[in-house]
Amino acid sequence: MLTIDTTRKISFNRLISNGDLVIVYERHDNMKAVTVSEGSVLQNRFGVFKHSDWIGKSFGSKVFSNKGGFVYLLAPTPELWTLVLSHRTQILYIADISFVVMYLEIVPGCVVLESGTGSGSLSTSLARAVAPKGHVYTFDFHEQRAGSARDDFERIGLSSLVTVGLRDIQGEGFPEEFVGLADAVFLDLPQPWLAIPSAAKMLRHDGTLCSFSPCIEQVQRSCETLQSNFTDIRTFEVLLRTYEVREVKTESSEINGNGGSNVSLPCKRRHGSDGANVVSYPNSSVMARPCGEARGHTGYLTFARLQCLS
């Protein structure tokens, strides 16, 4: 994520500096995170890129190698960071993350509690959503994982927005210092029903909770526990299907009486057996078809709202 100036409104550094983290983009399925270091180089199939040439350029710049090849230097936004981070655990991806941020009603200034931290994929998006004056407190029972996540948040400039704690939330619950202070709680635990009573104590009146579980049996047990203190209990499964849309150039076989191409011919539409839709024009076709690798089930998202007693 772009470094945040916490003394002002949401404000970002737009120029690359020595020590910054950048996402080197070759294509949508080939990216890597690189820390800019003057005197260092990046070598890939396109040639050798000098880091010194990157300093002072804007994020999003196209930079060239000694062979004339190029890459793009992108800011480490939560969306891109999710695609390049080290997977210490199974992570949440963009489809689920966007749903979580929306349904938990997270806005700037919110206080969010999260367990467990894992690889920190969701935490980065939560941090951006609560910036500049909110905060995310995330907990993991695994000491090495918590330390690695803390290092990552420092690396991408989020340490002022995210605090990592070492704690077994299933066994101990959330720290008492957060009672009644959280606007939202997110649980990604093997047995979330054990942490739900503690989460209820942490939430403000009308606060929201989300539990992510890969198995429907976990959802059923969690929903049973939620009945005691929560209302508006709903479970979703987010399935993502992407499409490839591209133009294919063709030579027109239709010639008008003057020997020129007849560009006023009506277009033709056809549907392929693979789900592709093709619109044909005199000199080109535009094809739209589902990508071969469709992401299926990742998990179930269960949302609930704390009941107001008054």
Automatic annotation (TrEMBL):
Gene3D superfamilies: 3.10.330.20, Vaccinia Virus protein VP39
Keywords annotated in UniProt: Methyltransferase, Nucleus, S-adenosyl-L-methionine, Transferase, tRNA processing
Protein name: tRNA (adenine(58)-N(1))-methyltransferase
GO molecular function: tRNA (adenine(58)-N1)-methyltransferase activity
Compartmental location: Nucleus
Assigned protein family: Belongs to the class I-like SAM-binding methyltransferase superfamily. TRM61 family.
Gene Ontology cellular-component annotations: nucleus; tRNA (m1A) methyltransferase complex
PANTHER family for the chain: TRNA (ADENINE(58)-N(1))-METHYLTRANSFERASE, TRNA (ADENINE(58)-N(1))-METHYLTRANSFERASE CATALYTIC SUBUNIT TRMT61A
CDD domains for the chain: AdoMet_MTases
EC number from the UniProt entry: 2.1.1.220
One BP term from GO: tRNA methylation
Organism annotation: Pisum sativum (Garden pea)
tRNA (adenine(58)-N(1))-methyltransferase catalytic subunit TRM61 C-terminal domain residues: 69-305
Pfam families on file: GCD14
Catalytic activity annotation: adenosine(58) in tRNA + S-adenosyl-L-methionine = N(1)-methyladenosine(58) in tRNA + S-adenosyl-L-homocysteine + H(+)
Binding site for S-adenosyl-L-methionine: 119-122, 140, 168, 188
PROSITE patterns (alphabetical): SAM_TRM61
